[in-house]
Amino acid sequence: MKRRVAILISGRGSNMAALIRAAAASDFPAEIAVVISNRADAAGLERAGQSGIPTLVIESKPFGRDRAGFEAVLQAALDERGIELICLAGFMRLFTADFVRRWYGRMLNIHPSLLPSFPGLDPHGQALRAGVKISGATVHFVIPETDAGPIVMQGAVAVSDHDTPDTLSERILEVEHRIYPEALRLLATGRVRLDGDLCRSEAGAGVGNFLISPLA
Ligand code: GRF
Q1: CATH, domain 1-103, list 3.30.230.10, 3.30.1360.70, 3.40.640.10, 3.40.50.170
Q2: Tens digits of per-residue pLDDT, 85-140?
Q3: 154 lines ligand 1 (CB under 6 A)
Q4: How far apart are CA 201 and CA 91, in angstroms?
Q5: Residues with Cβ within 8 Å of residue 206, at least 6 apart in sequence
Q6: What is the mean pLDDT of residues 165-193?
Q7: Which of 17, 52, 91, 148 is most exposed, with the fewest beta carbons within 10 Å of its own?
Q8: Gap from CA of 46 to ligand 1 centroid (Å)
Q9: Cβ(13) to ligand 1 under 6 A?
Q10: Ligand 1 atom closest to residue 173's alpha carbon, by position in its atom list
């Protein structure tokens, strides 16, 4: 049985599209049962609709600071659809600790840096200002702290002196689209396990490939 997944978005939804694409394969262990946006104008909604995925808008704005109120409506929508796993994909709304605890181990997020470096806003700018030579993306389980939590999978890219936040973001996005479906595959097939604050997985380390940057 495929695990039933909800993808939560607020914007363009390119990671959402990568997950939908991967889940279209008959042997993928999860199905995207619904895409939920907290903004009616999220471009990703149209993309999801074009792929034949049911969409739902639950505007968060009217709830203001009432996070629990928004989450009650969201939780009801998830229950109604028998959702087992959540993938946050550019979802720009913070959850209460209660909601996060309820979904602990079943809710993934993706962030465009090698966490724990550069959490929060403008991770690409942060990476460039720090002068790192390698950056990347991280899929992690969601905990109450933003852009933190047990790391499921990471992918790295070289950073060049010529990079701008835009060019770096473009390159990291490619790696995001590669690792998010793979991380979901691991979770959906039960091949990841939480061990205290760490995530252990049965998948082997990426073999034979190390990344050096810059190359002399
Ligand atoms: C991605 O860079 C993701 O890592 C971050 O927000 C961005 C969302 O982009 N959390 P998209 O909506 O998936 O295109």
Answers
A1: 3.40.50.170
A2: 999 999 999 999 999 999 999 999 999 999 999 999 999 999 999 999 999 999 99
A3: no
A4: 25
A5: none
A6: 97
A7: 52
A8: 16
A9: yes
A10: 2
Active-site residues, by number, are: 111
Query: Is CATH 1.10.1060.10 what the domain over 109-216 is classified as, yes or no?
Result: no
Shortest-distance Cα residue to atom 1 of ligand 1: 90
Tokens of 119: 């959490």
> How far away, in angstroms, is 40 Cα from ligand 1 center?
17
Contacts of 123 (CB under 8 A, 6+ apart): 111, 112, 113
> Residue 216 Cα, ligand 1 centroid: separation in angstroms?
32
Whole-number Å distance between alpha carbons of 112 and 17: 16
